[in-house]
Every structure is written in structure tokens, then in C-alpha cells.
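A sample follows:
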Amino acid sequence: MSREPTTSKYIDVQQSEIHGTGVFARTDIPKGKKVIEYIGEKITKKESEKRSITLIEKNQGSLTDGAVYVFELNKRYDLDGNVPENTARFINHSCDPNCEPDVIKNRIWLLSTRKIKKGEELSYNYGFDLECYEEHQCRCGAKKCVGYITAEENWRKLKKLIAKKKKKEKKAAKAEEKARKKSKK
């Protein structure tokens, strides 16, 4: 039984410069509005983890098919938004988002965090942890983009990890250059 895609008077779905398909403001959206509901199948945390791992393993290396649309609903359940009728799954990540998810009466809504202008792409911070940050490069294009899709509270630690990695790479490159020069003598 297939349901119709979720709609909202505020949105249109179209191609995105950030990534694939995106959701855009059909009209000006005031701050604090419920823009669209994020819907899907209510599943246990155990099932959520199983599905996420299976999907990631199946689509290893794919830039288009690896998306996991699982949202935390509460301590016991998540919502698997990987269903055709969940239009909100097309909202892309941004390091400078204009929406945020909120669970209201056991339903997940995307709320506008500021006034959004007609034609502007809707976005929210996906809030990923740092565990596999390198697998989730960010292409949001925001001035304050940190380069990876992770929760804002991780940004300070992420910047330190990136600086440490660059320092290590620079040291390795110097050692390689030194070795190359030595072998030419």
C-alpha cells in the first residue's frame, strides 16, 4: 500500500546544488513554523542499528545510494524515513542550517529557525557524531562549513583532528622529500 508523498504549503522539491534532490521554500517561511513532518516506519533502536549498518555496507563508496534516513524519536524508538512518501528526507545538511528537527507529541517536525526566503533551499544539521566523519564530507557551501557532516558541538574537536592530520601529512611529505633527495645523491 503506497501513500502519497508528504506535502507542505511551504515547500517544493527540485534539484539541489548541495546534493542531488533538495527541498526549497515555495514562499517566504516565518521563523518558528512547522515546515514539514518527517515520516517513516517506527522501529526499535536495535532494528535501527541493524538497518543502518546493512545499508552502509551495501552501498560502500556510493555517493548517491548510501543515505541513511533514520531519526531518533525517543529513548526506545527511531523513525526510518527511507520510505517513498517521506518528502522531508530530501532536505539536505548544512553547517549553517535554516531548520531544525523537533519531536512534538511523538512526531518529528522540521521547524524554521529563522525567516526563510522564497526559493531558498531548506537545510538542517544532520548531527552526525565524529566516529566516521571522513566518510561524510559536507558540500553545503556555507561560509562557516567545517567540511564534514557532524553536529555543531563536535566542531572544535573536528578542527583539532583535521589540524593534527594535516600536520602529520606535512611531516610525512617532508620525510618523503628528504628521502628522495638523499636517494638522488
